[in-house]
Specification:
- The protein is an alpha/beta fold.
- It has a domain of 215 residues: Alpha-Beta Complex (Amidase signature (AS) enzymes).
- 38% of the residues lie in helices and 12% in strands.
- An 11-stranded mixed beta sheet has the order 1-3-2-4-6-5-10-11-9-7-8, sandwiched between helices.
- β2, α4 and β3 form a beta-alpha-beta unit.
- α1 runs antiparallel to α2.
- The mean pLDDT is 96.
Length: 468
């Protein structure tokens, strides 16, 4: 495309056609922007070669999760309460994608307000796993991972609060990375739990994920949690020798209750790294058993505060069934929020209430510090941590819909990276049947380059990954 052999319009038209064709079966998109994407592609085609060559993503169609703002487009967060909301501005990551020459082809489906692990709670309906339509694509970024896995988009953006990039990437057999907290701006991301939320890339291989991460990372003064530190050239660091790298195999994850395909894939992954000269060191993170409970106390407390703004007064859905201001609030939120969002608001309000704050919220914050200390001590012994992304492969749609606790446990291996704010990546490895298995690599803060390099080494060793 940079040379003009393929036009941006041709590439965009091809992916728009795939997105439209795949949408009825998968429901990966909430909206597909045919007109805007083609106009954008046409403008890119008019640029000189010199201008094109300076853009990392020139002409590349990208899908964006629908809780990330794109100016002039919907940002529904998968919720009825934002059904009619049109964003008046773009998120920083959106601006960065456009400045690097990307073409945004549509907004992808997600669990409502990113609260879920199966992409079943969206107001816009269930998203299906393209590898097996009876299975969940995971969540909450299931629309983005399904779109990439099905070839409806070459890459996508997702968000990760407790594993919402990595768990669906594992289920759909794609690569998904959560950067260090503060590495990528959250400006323009509709908040779920701001002390956990991060935006990251989803792609079909490690190199593509590295290129997209390069494009969206960097300091942003509009985000108070953004960290001002240099962004390495991730894609140029992928073929380094990993011999001598010390990789910690997390006992609590690897020796846990794993399905046979997950256990076999993990064993093969550890052997593949050893064969390339890495040293595998058993490590223990003794407080990990508390991670799910900690996460669902702290994240719901933040949810309770963040979702107060959706009241029917300023924007979004407003109920027509009310008699005064108080009843308008009640009716709007009753109609606008789904069951899972209401459950998390209620739980968060409870743990913040008088008499329970110290018993739950404050204690959870202290326990979060214990997990951070465990991880910090582990990184004193090793360079990276490894384990399965999920204890099982993709489960059946509807299998956990009526059991919130089992659904929450889907993120048991991904949550620790969010609690500690460290980078983590999931990539498929060694799966021989139709359902992939994800392997997760975690790194020290701001060590995304090394993490991606280890992931690329695993990718090279995967005999079941032709073309990656």
């Amino acid at each position: 495309m940079v040379a003009g052999d393929i036009s941006a319009i041709e590439a965009t038209e091809s992916y728009l056609a795939k997105a439209r064709e795949g949408q009825p079966a998968l429901n990966a998109f909430i909206s597909i922007d045919n007109e805007g994407a083609l106009a954008r592609a046409g403008a890119l085609d008019s640029l000189r070669v010199e201008a094109r060559s300076r853009m990392r993503l020139f002409g590349i169609p990208i899908a964006v999760k629908d809780n990330i703002c794109v100016k002039g487009g919907k940002a529904t967060c998968g919720s009825r309460i934002l059904n009619s909301f049109i964003s008046p501005y773009s998120a920083t990551v959106t601006e960065k994608l456009l400045s690097e020459g990307a073409v945004i082809i549509g907004k992808t489906n997600l669990d409502e307000f990113a609260m879920g692990s199966s992409t079943e709670t969206s107001y816009w309906g269930v998203t299906r796993n393209p590898l097996n339509l009876s299975r969940s694509p995971g969540g909450s970024s299931g629309g983005s991972t399904a779109a990439v896995a099905a070839g409806l988009a070459p890459c996508a953006l997702g968000t990760d609060t407790g594993g919402s990039i990595r768990q669906p990437s594992s289920f759909c057999g794609v690569v998904g990375a959560k950067p260090t907290y503060g590495r990528v701006s959250r400006y323009g991301l509709v908040a779920f739990a701001p002390s956990f939320d991060q935006i990251g890339p989803i792609a079909r291989n490690v190199e593509d994920a590295a290129i997209v991460l390069e494009a969206i990372a960097g300091y942003d003064p509009r985000d108070s949690t953004s960290v001002n530190c240099p962004v390495p050239n991730y894609s140029n660091s992928l073929e380094r020798d990993i011999s001598g790298a010390r990789i910690g195999a997390i006992r609590e994850h690897i020796e846990g209750e794993l399905t046979r395909p997950v256990r076999d894939a993990m064993d093969a992954a550890l052997k593949a790294l050893q064969s390339q000269g890495a040293e595998i060191v058993p490590v223990s993170l003794p407080h990990l058993d508390y991670s799910v409970a900690i996460y669902y106390i702290l994240s719901t407390a933040e949810t309770s505060s963040n979702l107060l703004r959706f009241d029917g007064v300023r924007y979004g859905h407003r109920s027509s069934n009310y008699s005064d201001l108080s009843s308008m609030y009640r009716a709007t939120r009753e109609e606008g929020f789904g069951a899972e969002v209401k459950r998390r608001i209620a739980l968060g309000t409870f743990v913040l209430s008088t008499g329970y704050y110290d018993a739950y919220y404050l204690k959870a914050q202290k326990a979060r510090t214990l997990i951070i200390d465990d991880i910090r001590r582990a990184f004193g012994e090793v360079d990276y941590l490894i384990g399965p992304t999920s204890p099982q492969q993709a489960f059946e749609i509807g299998e956990r819909a009526d059991d919130p606790l089992m659904m929450y446990l889907s993120d048991i291996f991904t949550i620790p990276a969010n609690l500690a704010g460290i980078p983590a990546i999931s990539l498929p490895f060694g799966s021989t049947d139709e359902l992939p298995v994800g392997v997760q690599i975690m790194a020290k803060p701001y060590e995304e380059a090394g993490m991606l390099n280890i992931a690329r080494a695993l990718e090279r060793a995967d005999n079941h990954a032709p073309g990656r």
